Inverse folding.
C-alpha cells in the first residue's frame, strides 16, 4: 500500500523552538512496536496516498489529552508546532483532514487493535517501574452513550441517582504506580463482580474493591491468580448499632483509604480526557474510545513516574 512520507523537513523547526511535554512523551516508549501493530492499516481515501497510521494514532492521543473533536484536532494539528512535532510533521507540509481520523478509528475497530495497542504500550510502561507489586485496585465507572438509540448500550439505575443509558468501563490499576493494567468495556447493566473476574492481572497482590465485588466468583478468580481479596464489608455481627458501626469502620477504613485512588483515575479520564460520554455508537467504537483514553492516561502517568 502506498503511504505518504512525512517529516522530511524537520530542519525547518528552529533550534529555539520551545520543548514541550509532548516531546518528553515521544521519548517515553519505543514507538516502533506500536508502528508494527499498525502496519496492516491503510486509511487512504480513494485516489490519495495513505497517511502513516502511527502519526494518526498520535493525533488521536492528542485529541484525548486536549479533549478535541476531529474538526478541532485537524485545525490544531495544522496550527500548533508541538502537535506537529509529536505526530512527525514538519512545519510546512500538509496535515490530515478530519476524515482521516474517522477512517483510522474504523480500521482500528475492524482489526480489533485497541486492546492490543493498550497492552503493548502498558507493558512498556510497567517494565520501566522497579517497585515490587503490592496490590491492585478494581472498580467500574459508567459512561453515557452517544445516543439513546445506541442498541449496544443499556440502562442502569443506582439508588438516589438518575438512570443512565450507556456503558461500563471495568478497570484494574496498580496500587503503587496507579497505571491502568486491564480494561474491559461492557453494557452498563453488566454486574461489576462478573466483569471484574476478567480484569485481574497475574499475581495481583491484595485486590481492593467495593461491595459490588462480594461473592465467591470474584474471590475465586482473584485467588486463582495468586491474589487476596480486600472487599468492602456491608454487614457484621455486633451487639448493637454503635458496635456494628465501629467494626465496619475498622474493617473498611484501610480498604477505602487505598481503593479511593482509582476514583482519581476516573476523574482524570472524565474531566480532562473527554470520557464524560461516548463519542460514537456501538460497543466496538466505545471500547476503542476507552482504550485510547487509557493509553493517554498511562502515558501521562508514566511520564510523571519517570520524572519522580
Amino acid at each position: 500500500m502506498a503511504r505518504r512520507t512525512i517529516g522530511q523537513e524537520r530542519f525547518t523547526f528552529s533550534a529555539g523552538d520551545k520543548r514541550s511535554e509532548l516531546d518528553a512523551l515521544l521519548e517515553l516508549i519505543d514507538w516502533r512496536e506500536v508502528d508494527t501493530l499498525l502496519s496492516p492499516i491503510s486509511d487512504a481515501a480513494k485516489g490519495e496516498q495513505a497517511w502513516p497510521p502511527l502519526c494518526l494514532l498520535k493525533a488521536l492521543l492528542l485529541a484525548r489529552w486536549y479533549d478535541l473533536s476531529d474538526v478541532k484536532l485537524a485545525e490544531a494539528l495544522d496550527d500548533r508546532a508541538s502537535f506537529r512535532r509529536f505526530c512527525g510533521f514538519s512545519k510546512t507540509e500538509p496535515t490530515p483532514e478530519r476524515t482521516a481520523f474517522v477512517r483510522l478509528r474504523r480500521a482500528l475497530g475492524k482489526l480489533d487493535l485497541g486492546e492490543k495497542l493498550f497492552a503493548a504500550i502498558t507493558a512498556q510502561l510497567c517494565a520501566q517501574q522497579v517497585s515490587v507489586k503490592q496490590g491492585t485496585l478494581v472498580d467500574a465507572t459508567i459512561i453515557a452513550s452517544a445516543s439513546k438509540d445506541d442498541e449496544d448500550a443499556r440502562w442502569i439505575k443506582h439508588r438516589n441517582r438518575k438512570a443512565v443509558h450507556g456503558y461500563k468501563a471495568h478497570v484494574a490499576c496498580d496500587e503503587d504506580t496507579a497505571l491502568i493494567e486491564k480494561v474491559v468495556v461492557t453494557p452498563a447493566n453488566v454486574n461489576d463482580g462478573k466483569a471484574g473476574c476478567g480484569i485481574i492481572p497475574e499475581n495481583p497482590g491484595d485486590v481492593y474493591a467495593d461491595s459490588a465485588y462480594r461473592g465467591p466468583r470474584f474471590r475465586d478468580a482473584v485467588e486463582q491468580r495468586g491474589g487476596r481479596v480486600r472487599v468492602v464489608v456491608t454487614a457484621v455481627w455486633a451487639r448493637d448499632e454503635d458496635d456494628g458501626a465501629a467494626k465496619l469502620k475498622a474493617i473498611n477504613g484501610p480498604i477505602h483509604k487505598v481503593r479511593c485512588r482509582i476514583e482519581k483515575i476516573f476523574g482524570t479520564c472524565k474531566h480532562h480526557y473527554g470520557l464524560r460520554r461516548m463519542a460514537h455508537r456501538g460497543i466496538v467504537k466505545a471500547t476503542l474510545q476507552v482504550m485510547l483514553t487509557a493509553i493517554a492516561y498511562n502515558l501521562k502517568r508514566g511520564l510523571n513516574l519517570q520524572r519522580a
Q: What stands out?
A: Residues 10-111 form one domain. The first strand starts at residue 135 and ends at 144. The chain is about 45% helix and 15% strand. The radius of gyration is 22 Å.
